[in-house]
Amino acid sequence: MIRTLRILAANPLSLLGLTLVILITLAAIFAPWIAPFPTHNGAVVDFLNNNRPPSSHNWMGTDLVGRDIFSRILFAYQISLTLGVVVLAIAVPIGTMIGLLAGYIGGWLEMVLMRIVDVFLSIPPLVLAIAMMGVLEPTLTNAMLAVTAMWWPWYARLVYSIARGEREEGYVLAAEVIGAGAGHIAFREILPNCLPAIITKMTLDMGFVIIIASSLSFLGLGVQPPTADLGSMVAEGARYLPDSWWLTVFPGLAILVAVFGFNLLGDGLRDVLGVDE
Amino acid sequence: MMKNTALITALCAATALASPAFAETVLRLDEVAVGELDPAKASDYADSILMFNVYDTLVLPAQGGPGHTPHLAASWDVDGATYTFTLRDDVMFQSGNKMTAADVVYSVERMQALGAGLSYLFAGVTAEAVDDTTVTLTLETPYAPFIASLVRLPIVDMTLVKANSDSEWGEDFLSGNGAGTGAYSVTSHNPQEETVMAKSDSYFLDVADVAPDTVRLRYGLEPATVRTLIAQGEHDIASQWLPPEVVQALANDGAQLLTESGTGGFYFKMNTQKPPLDNVNCRLALSAVFDYGTAIQMIAINDEVSGGSPSTGAIPVGMFGANGSDMVQTQDLDAAKAYLADCPYDPAEMNLEISWIAEVPLEERFALLMQSNFNEMGISSSITKLPWALFAEQVSTAETTPHISQLFVNAVTGDPDTLLYGMYHSSTPGTWQSPEYLNDAEVDAALDAGRSATSDADREAAYSALNARLMAIAPTIYGFDRQSVFAASNRVNVPALSDPAMAFGLDGMGFSFRLMEMTGE
């Protein structure tokens, strides 16, 4: 662990990524305490102070109904991070399991599972999510469901390709010779060798999940008002460009910072964990 | 020598192009999609702009005052329920065909057969051509504002339609082509993108040279796009749906503000079939809790121009039956508490769905204002964004209609009947104007009385009674009386939208391009 951190720290960009991720996570967790206007995440309107540019009172200005944009961005990070964590927490185990089974057991199971994965991978991810959201009600839970449905196949494909290679390795054959069961070999022998790749991809994917979720709410298919969400804040503000630029620029920057942070960290982890590109 | 001649010719051509006398003037404006070109299906603003320019009607609203003036009809007589029109004999369609009484009969019957748009205005009307220039329209039941309705009866070129379509009513042809007598003919039409129109040279009235030669009506432009285009001198008149901040920014940059007022309002329509809004006390509580004062602040553009004026009741000020300006609606939390005490539903369990139309960003703010007002009373609610097309589909049944729908509605003929009948009569539920699904015998009776009464005094009495009844049963929260504001470049003058003495008193009529003046700037 300390060794990992030391290697990470040796690369300034990775360190920057790690710092951004930690800052964003802390900001999200402590939003109710550090936000200057904690009530502005809800159904609050203040038309006497609406559409104000950045000032010492409102660091990032106020939106069209008078809510503090900085406070709303902190709360929006809660939504984005929760969404990212939940999506990956569901998609990664499912994808890994399917990939392992297909890669290690092979045969007809491999055929069936990997063709299903191919079907999912052949549909552009955002289109699949939009189609699902069109059928379901636009809520946070359904947005998570839609993003999860498009995310697991990538892990299935990743783990499958590693497991297929490992299947022929000496240590797997040795385990088979001494009579280890299929479950033991898959989960205790092969899976640990897939973990570095999975962890690296998860870190990189946090950024992408945040982007996709923001795209969904940009289209009005994600979290509904008055809850703060980065994508819908950008969508709402875009109508008022270029005059009320703060409505769009700050939430947009917030997305950029989050995605950038996770990407840099993911790159750093890839080096640390020795995963091939 | 050859070379010189060519050079001189080229120079002459260049001079001709640059000379203002030959310059083609182009007017560019925008509206919300879709642009419905078939005049029998026209109902909303974009459709009306198309209809008023490509087609003509028998009468026109008088400018700067009440009443109607002859247009395609030279004169008319009324005998009970029979109206006899003498048509002008010098009117040609854009195709070159002569306009006759047979075209008027065809237009009425086509409207009735298609049953779309505002065809309900002409249900039960029998049209008959007496000779080429005389036509009678006979009503089944007396309808006081019938002459006013005629502004929604565009006359279609029957000969052209029949020559270009196999179907009797030519829907396929008229959805993409113009067939009118109007001052502008359709050059190209894509209902989602743009309609291009050109000044017709065969119009029966004089059209000033300064009227635009070409008009490009674009659909579905983003507010930020319109803002940028006007600032760059590439757009002339913005739609009325721009958020007030954008209109303000444009006005600060020197854009002129055009206005059109007086025939409609902004409404929060409550679905009276869906609990808890099926109970009158619950509806009255919501009406009392809404913050009308803040809503008025939200629509102000500057000190002089605003998107509306305070509502005094169910009927806009200036129409029959309107309340005086001393009855301005205000938020009344004590009254709201009292009504809520008599409402049998638990406020925390109400989960009212407040919808807003995606194409009208301002409505999201009204939704948030309303939600925060409801929160003060402990009433739970959620906000849903609905694109116009989806909303129009959802209102077709009471079950799928949201609890609260936000709508701008105007009297399509300028008469209160066409504002209120379609909204509240029990025979017209489930249109975009009537998501209330109101079924009230007293309201029906007042509406029927309003359209059959012959004297102004009787009509005033009927609509006063209607106003009182509507305020008592609160199917709708009456937000404010509407004034449409359009930001425009200085390349165009629009007297009908800037000079009250030239205003038409009918929504969309101010966009008669033949009366506009390009300034050459």
Q: What's the short version?
A:
Chain A is an all-alpha fold and 277 residues long.
Tags for this model:
heterodimer, A: 277 residues, mainly alpha, MetI-like fold, B: 521 residues, D-Maltodextrin-Binding Protein, domain 2, 4-stranded mixed beta sheet, 4-stranded antiparallel beta sheet, 17 helices
Instruction: Name the CATH homologous superfamily of the largest domain in chain B.
Output: Periplasmic binding protein-like II
Assembly status: heterodimer
Mean pLDDT of chain B: 91
CATH architecture of the largest domain in chain B: 3-Layer(aba) Sandwich
Name the CATH class of chain A.
Mainly Alpha
Mean pLDDT of chain A: 89
Please identify, by name, the CATH architecture of chain A: Orthogonal Bundle
Largest interface: A-B, 20 and 26 residues
Give helix % range of chain A: over 70%
Order of helices and strands of chain A: HHHHHHHHHHH
